[in-house]
Amino acid sequence: MKFNAPMKKRSGSLAVTAAYFRNHWILYGMLVLPIVYYILFHYKPLPGLTIAFKDYNMFLGLGGSPWVGLKYFRQVIHFETFWISVKNMLVLNVLSLALGFPAPIILALFLNELQSKHFKKTVQTIIYLPHFISWVIVGGMMYQVFSTSGLINSTLGRLGIRTVAFLSTGSWWVFTYFIVGIWKNLGWNTIIYLSAMTGIDQEIYEAARVDGCSRFRMMRSITVPCIMDTVVIMLILAIGGIASIGFEQPYVMQNSVVMDVADVVSTYVYRVGLEQANFSIGTAVGFAQSVINFSLVISANFISKRVSGKGIW
Amino acid sequence: MILESKNDRIFKAFTVAIILIITAACLFPFLYIVSVSFSGKNPVMRGEVFLWPVGWDFSAYRTVFNNQSLMLSMRFTILLTIVHTLICVIMTVMCAYPLSKPDLKFKAPILLLILFTMYFSGGMIPNYLNIKQLGLIDTFWVLILPGCLSTYNMILMKSFFQAMPREMEESAFVDGANDAVVLIKIILPLSKAMLATIALFYAVGRWNGFMDALLYINDGDMFTIQLRLRMIIQASQVSTLIEDIPEVKNDVIAETIKAACLVFSMIPIMIVYPWLQKYFVKGVMIGSVKG
Fold first, then answer.
1. Chain B within 8 Å of A277 (Cβ-Cβ)?
2. What domains are defined for chain B?
């Protein structure tokens, strides 16, 4: 609430500043531990990025390891497995965006139509639940539901339909990835749209009703335009995140048979960089991704500000 | 009251039907694994179990509760979550309160230092090497300190403090109170709901998180419940899990035990779910209003 702030004192004089510190040293005392935290766990690792440009040797340490320039970047662009992980990340993200982005908006619109408060509340309680379950548990449940002897296949079998290898054929795995992702987040992602809808003036609906507007027409011509701002911001932010992918969902869902569609950049860095101890290659890939991702988020925010006057900061 | 038209009724029925289908889809996997965990091994193998247990059998749970390492992980993770949440909430308040003051000197550079970390990080390997250099690998504190302050939660807390009326604290200052007294005696008692929200954010994050344990913990005594669960799920044979009790080895198949483990590790979340839902929704709303 910036407008509550008192006028900035245009003093600038040393005495005033000194007096401020004397009166409010406790505030700075409180900030010591948080700042130490940020330096220790967020800034201290940054010099480690130079590993990407060095032949890292554990015994020589960061300072002692020799510089090799872009050697590892040059190496990694010749690795087929690296490009596969980039491609998979983009495919999974683009498809997740195409399917996963509109779904919560539509569900929120439908939830908004419910007149019984009690029913709505019950539905919300149930659809938010998957959000609170860890990816490890979701991964375990996925095996129970989608494996060849799981819930879906045994039901298909009972109906006389051929079973589907959801987890071991590439295209079915990708399909399962979306279903699981949507299952976990669909309900939860409706909240932001529902809260945008509560801000709509009820009188608009009243007026429309008097004019004999159908409910579907009201949804299309009142609710949708009123939440468009939120939709645009969420879309821009989602597009800004296209070059990054979480670690946990792909990690718990992948298996050795489907690696050519399931390996993504985050799991690639983990596997090649840490498990196989190629620190320089892992850092190089992570660094390149950080830079690309950082510029995408910044541009997304810039566009969001231009389009809607709102940004994330 | 205007009578509903036929079209409206069709539309309403359609939306209710879609919502019911989605709700059922959210619920079915839970019902299914609970049913599997209480079922006999043969009905599960034959795929007869759907949404209700077939051939009631509690041996899977007997296996789970007799498994020392799983129970150890459970106790360890509960302790870890409590300590982590306490430290996180204190750190968040200590960071957010000074930054909520509009006239704090050097506020802009401090905020810049903090916000930058939201958008750029060293990445997995520099972070790993940093943790290693700090000597934190395989310690209790590695699961607490690296995540003991979330910038997102701090910003939430900060905007909450900023929205509070400043008159009360100003009168306290006139009475000679200092910043610490104002924070503890006036601000925090008025922030209980927000503190609960933040605490739940941290607690759920800690309970569900497993990437840090995967990277930094090799010592089996410090496996969090999620890491332990991951290993159980991955293990193709269940023999590692039930070696303590050989007599059940031939009686119970892996699927029912895995299901029982999953259900078991969901219990704490289910217990706090009513509060979770209430406070989390509030937190997300505050976050969205702010954004």
1. no
2. 24-57 (no CATH), 64-290 (1.10.3720.10)
Contact A114 B16 (CB under 8 A): yes
Task: Give ipTM to 2 decimals.
Answer: 0.86
Provide the H-helix boundaries in A48-116. Answer: 61-64, 71-76, 80-100, 102-113
Lowest model confidence (mean pLDDT) among A298-307, B74-83, B146-155, B226-235: A298-307
Q: Is B281 on the interface with A (CB under 8 A)?
A: yes
Rounded to whole angstroms, the Cα distance separating B172 from B184 reads 12
- Best of A1, A41, A85 to substitute, by most chain B Cβ atoms within 10 angstroms, is A41
Name the residue ranges covered by the structural domains of chain A.
Answer: 74-308
Q: Which residues in chain A touch residue B226, judged by CB atoms under 8 angstroms apart?
A: 134, 136-137
Q: Binning pLDDT at 50, 70 and 90, where does residue B241 land? A: very low
Question: Are B285 and A195 within 8 A, CB to CB?
Answer: yes
CB contact under 8 A, B101 and A27: yes
**What is A74-308's CATH number?**
1.10.3720.10
